[in-house]
Amino acid sequence: MDPKKKTVGFAPDNDVNTADLASPGSSNNSSTVGSPVSALGNTPDIGTHSVTFSATTAEPRTINAAGSRSSYEPMKSSYEEQWGLTDRTSSSSSSAGKAHKLASPREGSGFPNSNKDQAAGSNKKDTKGKRNSASSPGNPGTSSTGKESGSGKASGLCIQPNVGASSKDSPQSGGTASAGSTGPGSAGGKPDGSQKPSAPSQKSMTKAERRELQEKQKAEKAARVSAGLPASGKKAAQIVSQPNSGFSPNPSKSLATSFPGVEAEKAIAAAESTSQAKRRERLTKEIGLFAHLDPPKFANTASAPKDLHPAVVNVGLQMAQFKICGANARCVATLNAFRKAIQDYQTPPNNTLSRHMQTYLNPHISYLVTCRPMAVSMGNAIRYLKYEIGKNLELPDEDARSLFLEKIDNFIRDRITMADQVITSLGLQKIQDGDVILTYARSSVVEGLLLAAHAKGIKFKVIVVDSRPRFEGKQLLRALANAGVPCTYVLLTAIGHVMREVSKVILGAHSLLSNGALYSRAGTAVVAMSAHERKIPVIVCCETYKFSDRVQLDSFVQNEIGNPDELVNDQYNNYGHSSTRYHDSVRGSSSSTAAATNGTKGSGGVLSDWKELRDLKLLNLLYDLTPSEFVTVVITEVGLIPCTSVPVILREFLPMMQQ
Amino acid sequence: MSKNNELVDDLVAKLKRRQLVGSSTVSQATLKLLIVVISKSNWTTCNQLVTIVKTVGQRLVQANPTELAVGNIVRRVLHVIREEFHEAESTISHKNQASTSEFHAAPLTTSSSMYNLLGETGSTPDKNLQFPSSLRSNIIQEIREIKDELENIYDNIKNQASLQIHSNEIIMTIGRSKTVEEFLKMAAVKRKFQVLVAESAPSYSGQEMALELSKAGIETTVIPDSAVFAVMSRVNKVILGTHAVLANGGLVAISGTHMMAAAAKHHSIPVVVCTGLYKLSPLYPYDEDTFNVQFNPDSVLGFEEGDLIDKVTVTNPYYDYVSPEFVNLFITNQGGHPPSYLYRLIVENYDPNDHSFDL
């Protein structure tokens, strides 16, 4: 694997900030072409894309069609592909300038190059296969093109000359060919034979040329990946070549039909070996115990369906980047986004709003899941919304719309805002003068409770315990300190040291499970355990809408894996100071800025090149499970209950929730 | 004598400035210094030499009271001195009294051993006794043996690795400990296992540990401290390093160790502590913070947080106290011992008169 590619990590230029969110596609430059976002508003995507469209205006719709098809592929993006994706941001800008035909990822996706294939040294075989696939789309599935590919090495390497020349004038034959082929029956672009005469073999290229070629191939691969196509050029071409047959579940098999004979077998073997190698590579960085969990997800609208409401797209991106984080915040943001979506919803002809609403919302919901695994709170809220929609199928459009909007408002008001107020008033009874209250990370409810207690004039002290990698407690600390609450700030490792003076532990919750277990930010269990060990009461604040009927015994079966690169930010990078990933610390700020932009390479962190080491892995677990025996009491809006009463509350209040 | 003083001053200064940190380095430096002191200074009786060594020891210990290994080494040396004098004494008196004494129990250890309960509890030293000139070199020889022991500590500990680790284990550790690192690397030669390393913020020394282990071909996963409890249920063994071991079997170890040991206890996971005997201190932790030290809180909450710094208290304790009930096994250079056995090792290695350096 290419070291540069791997170390790019979370480059900030991939980081969509709120300003960009107005047009979410714009920051994800080339990858969003043909994606629904840019399809909604094409105009903001100028820059690199304008060239694209001028080059291929003939068939922009078919490109989109192919794109949307591929976007329905399962989101099985491996780590490696994600790195490839982030790499695209740095390399595509350069390659876009060089080769103007390259700008569209759909064209690129048909472009038969794979960086890895080349590295594997199986050049001859692969390029032949690729050339096949590049040329075959014009005439898909014919064996004649397959045989033609046997014509030799030189023809197999037909893509390289323009790379070597790197002139803006030399169009990329492969790219054009496959781009044209995206629409069946299209002109098919320039015949790639026109490039053959000038094709030097790879051996004759200079080092610089080869390097350039690699760069280009990488960019193309990244573009392919972002387009939701397989990283391997052959497969991508295969998919593009069969736009009507959809994504073939077994690409190697369908390859076999188009290239019979020895060549085909070779191509299949190559495809399989690369995919196996890729899977192995992914597996090696996977933690065995957590292999069943989704790999960390990254903000990416490229694979989203095209007709999403921008507000939902926005929220999804913000959640993917942890800009919106915390069970309550995510739930409110989701509901508000859905509210906007329902507001702007236009009933399609021959349909009624309430009947079509569910089908309309479903892609939005699955999009949010692709951004970040759904929070329990969000799941409950959405279930409620669906229930309401299903209950009112017969209402006229406008009545239904206003009803749904009202239901959403009521849910936020009753289950979250009011619930928090009730929890606060109940919790106030439990805070007395002279208390030393310990809390972990940041919970909106706990923050509200502590601020209210201070406002009420109770004299108490707060110890905020915090932990890597998010340092969420700093926000709480800031809020409390600004309000004038005496605070102490420690890291989780010092929990044994500070626990002695604590009189109460107050924690927030992501969810309470039916067996009474508390599912919350990773580290909560350690805090609760330390308190339990010293017989200090542990109070959990949790609204009932976060209760889940799920049952879980350990932190493995259901959890969420964060981006492992967040752990790399060590003392050289940010010394654990920042609450955000890209915050530059005072010391060595220049170096860490550089590190943030070119990846972590050279930042000097102990783990900065962890991906190079075969045996080193990082685990960034987001949640953990606190056994119910550690929790003394749960404060909910229905009163103070033991956490084993969760199933009771769920039973009692399920009808209420769905009324 | 003045030369000695210079050397002592030098080491005291280094300890004070924390130029020398880490149990291993300070103990070797202390031993080196004591060899010079004993060989260069003038003494004739046991008390004289003990006083000299104690004076030096007192200064060293006061220079950095949290480096318990310094005191331990001084006590070991004092113990050796007392034993050597005792031996010399008994041979002389044996010669003098020739066959007069009917019953004379051979003193195996100086005190509080059951061997001595029925025998003579050692005669008071005779002031007029003339010690042979070989005594000095004997003492130096014995101290050199301690030095050898210090140098071979990792070998002795790591040789027990394959006795403790079976194949396909998942082992958890925290922070960086040279002893644990050697132990695991040795085990990796014969066994295949996984290691989870908690970072131990804010020093993040666990990251270095993980890097070293992974370079040795051990499948290593770095976990943030917050994930310790979550993954503990799948761990087979917790192997810890420590800064010091106290007389009750409690540990003074890098912060986060308590949390990990408690999580292990909750899941009934055995906790193994790898330590050289020189870290075993005869002191008791009457308060959990007796041997702790607060470090610069900058690494917890940096100054770039601005005015927030003025409003809040930030603490950064460097060590954790881990009570002995969390520990299942100590692996020392003399073999494996349960925490309940440590008092015995203390009796064997230190003289009860030396527990404090007050003269």
Automatic annotation (TrEMBL), chain A:
<feature type="compositionally biased region" description="Polar residues">
    <location>
        <begin position="49"/>
        <end position="71"/>
    </location>
</feature>
<feature type="compositionally biased region" description="Gly residues">
    <location>
        <begin position="182"/>
        <end position="191"/>
    </location>
</feature>
<keyword id="KW-0648">Protein biosynthesis</keyword>
<dbReference type="InterPro" id="IPR000649">
    <property type="entry name" value="IF-2B-related"/>
</dbReference>
<dbReference type="InterPro" id="IPR042529">
    <property type="entry name" value="IF_2B-like_C"/>
</dbReference>
<keyword id="KW-0963">Cytoplasm</keyword>
<feature type="compositionally biased region" description="Polar residues">
    <location>
        <begin position="24"/>
        <end position="35"/>
    </location>
</feature>
<feature type="compositionally biased region" description="Low complexity">
    <location>
        <begin position="132"/>
        <end position="156"/>
    </location>
</feature>
<comment type="subunit">
    <text>Component of the translation initiation factor 2B (eIF2B) complex which is a heterodecamer of two sets of five different subunits: alpha, beta, gamma, delta and epsilon. Subunits alpha, beta and delta comprise a regulatory subcomplex and subunits epsilon and gamma comprise a catalytic subcomplex. Within the complex, the hexameric regulatory complex resides at the center, with the two heterodimeric catalytic subcomplexes bound on opposite sides.</text>
</comment>
<dbReference type="InterPro" id="IPR037171">
    <property type="entry name" value="NagB/RpiA_transferase-like"/>
</dbReference>
<keyword id="KW-0396">Initiation factor</keyword>
<feature type="compositionally biased region" description="Low complexity">
    <location>
        <begin position="170"/>
        <end position="181"/>
    </location>
</feature>
<feature type="compositionally biased region" description="Polar residues">
    <location>
        <begin position="195"/>
        <end position="205"/>
    </location>
</feature>
<dbReference type="InterPro" id="IPR027363">
    <property type="entry name" value="M1Pi_N"/>
</dbReference>
<comment type="similarity">
    <text>Belongs to the eIF-2B alpha/beta/delta subunits family.</text>
</comment>
<feature type="region of interest" description="Disordered">
    <location>
        <begin position="582"/>
        <end position="604"/>
    </location>
</feature>
<protein>
    <recommendedName>
        <fullName>Translation initiation factor eIF2B subunit delta</fullName>
    </recommendedName>
</protein>
<feature type="compositionally biased region" description="Polar residues">
    <location>
        <begin position="239"/>
        <end position="256"/>
    </location>
</feature>
<feature type="compositionally biased region" description="Low complexity">
    <location>
        <begin position="588"/>
        <end position="600"/>
    </location>
</feature>
<dbReference type="GO" id="GO:0005829">
    <property type="term" value="C:cytosol"/>
</dbReference>
<feature type="compositionally biased region" description="Polar residues">
    <location>
        <begin position="111"/>
        <end position="121"/>
    </location>
</feature>
<dbReference type="Pfam" id="PF01008">
    <property type="entry name" value="IF-2B"/>
</dbReference>
TrEMBL record, chain B:
<dbReference type="InterPro" id="IPR042529">
    <property type="entry name" value="IF_2B-like_C"/>
</dbReference>
<keyword id="KW-0175">Coiled coil</keyword>
<dbReference type="GO" id="GO:0005851">
    <property type="term" value="C:eukaryotic translation initiation factor 2B complex"/>
</dbReference>
<dbReference type="InterPro" id="IPR051855">
    <property type="entry name" value="eIF2B_beta_subunit"/>
</dbReference>
<keyword id="KW-0396">Initiation factor</keyword>
<protein>
    <recommendedName>
        <fullName>Translation initiation factor eIF2B subunit beta</fullName>
    </recommendedName>
</protein>
<comment type="subunit">
    <text>Component of the translation initiation factor 2B (eIF2B) complex which is a heterodecamer of two sets of five different subunits: alpha, beta, gamma, delta and epsilon. Subunits alpha, beta and delta comprise a regulatory subcomplex and subunits epsilon and gamma comprise a catalytic subcomplex. Within the complex, the hexameric regulatory complex resides at the center, with the two heterodimeric catalytic subcomplexes bound on opposite sides.</text>
</comment>
<dbReference type="GO" id="GO:0005829">
    <property type="term" value="C:cytosol"/>
</dbReference>
<feature type="coiled-coil region">
    <location>
        <begin position="136"/>
        <end position="163"/>
    </location>
</feature>
<dbReference type="GO" id="GO:0005085">
    <property type="term" value="F:guanyl-nucleotide exchange factor activity"/>
</dbReference>
<dbReference type="GO" id="GO:0003743">
    <property type="term" value="F:translation initiation factor activity"/>
</dbReference>
<comment type="similarity">
    <text>Belongs to the eIF-2B alpha/beta/delta subunits family.</text>
</comment>
<keyword id="KW-0963">Cytoplasm</keyword>
<dbReference type="InterPro" id="IPR000649">
    <property type="entry name" value="IF-2B-related"/>
</dbReference>
<keyword id="KW-0648">Protein biosynthesis</keyword>
<dbReference type="InterPro" id="IPR037171">
    <property type="entry name" value="NagB/RpiA_transferase-like"/>
</dbReference>
<dbReference type="Pfam" id="PF01008">
    <property type="entry name" value="IF-2B"/>
</dbReference>
